[in-house]
Amino acid sequence: MKLLRKFGYLVGLPVLLILLWWASTLGGTNFFVPKPGILADKLVTVWVGERFVQDVLPSVTRLIIGILLAIVLGTVLGVLVGTIRWLRSLLEPMLEFFRAIPPPVLIPVLMLLIGINDQMKVAVIVSGCIWPVLLNTIEGVRAVDGTLSDSAKTFRITGFHRLRYLVLPSASPQIMAGIRQCLSIGLILMVISEMFASSEGLGFTIVQFQRSFAIPEMWSGIVVLGLIGVVMSFLFQWTERRVLGWYHGLREVEHAE
């Protein structure tokens, strides 16, 4: 019964919105808004098959590589900057400066430095995704409980063991919060990076559909982007429940008291 209720919550609102959409398009035709049946047909005929291999897979591959690189770089640098006080004081103004630069404006610069290739597109994704991970990791490391830190010193837990058993577990809730933010940023930057001097990918194909007035095909590409976002969200929630199982259990106990 609980599983059925969860499934109802999951699909209830999307089904209701599709029904409203279908009802509002009955008896009329709008060039810019296709009917649900036409869109479902284009979703299958356009994206299942050759275009999935040529456009969707390369885009998703670049997105995964960019996000993984941002998570690794952001976590490692965040632990270093958060742990070493003088390094944090030295880098904090520069971090604020670079964080304020919108990643899309770096695309022309990266095109000149790296060239028009997959590496440039991955670099664009990393340049935007790294900041939420980096800044949340720094704050998470800075917020390590003082009592636990003193206890670790008393028991001479230092170096790698302190990082493994104290710093990373304490900072992991904020690191995961940063990763959650970077997923949506990565999806946006994936599309933007493919709109400039590209010949394949989801962003390029959607723009081509728009320029050729293939409106149902364009909407079907937008739906594919939304489905990728939903899959990423579910994968993140599944991973978070396993990485932060201890944290959610602790919060449930605190709220029960």
Note down, in words, how this protein is organized.
With 257 residues, the protein is an all-alpha fold. It is 82% helix and 0% strand. The protein contains 11 helices and no strands. It has helices at residues 2-24, 36-47, 50-83, 85-99, 107-114, 118-142, 146-154, 159-193, 202-211, 215-243, 245-256. Helix 6 (118-142) crosses helix 8 (159-193). The longest helix is centred in the last third of the chain and has 35 residues, at 159-193. The chain is flat, with a radius of gyration of 23 Å. The chain starts with a helix and ends with a helix.
Q: Descriptors for this entry?
A:
257 residues; mainly alpha; 11 helices
Brief write-up:
By secondary structure, this protein is mainly α.
For the secondary structure, the number of strands is 0
Shape assignment: flat
Taken in chain order, the helices and strands follow as HHHHHHHHHHH
* Residue runs with pLDDT of under 50 for 5 or more positions: none
Q: Output the number of helix runs.
A: 11
Helix amount: over 70%
Structural class call reads mainly alpha
| Span of the ends, CA to CA | 28 Å
> How much β-strand is present in the residues?
under 5%
Cα radius of gyration in angstroms: 23 Å
Oligomer kind = single chain
The major sheet is characterized as: none
Report mean pLDDT, rounded to a whole number: 90
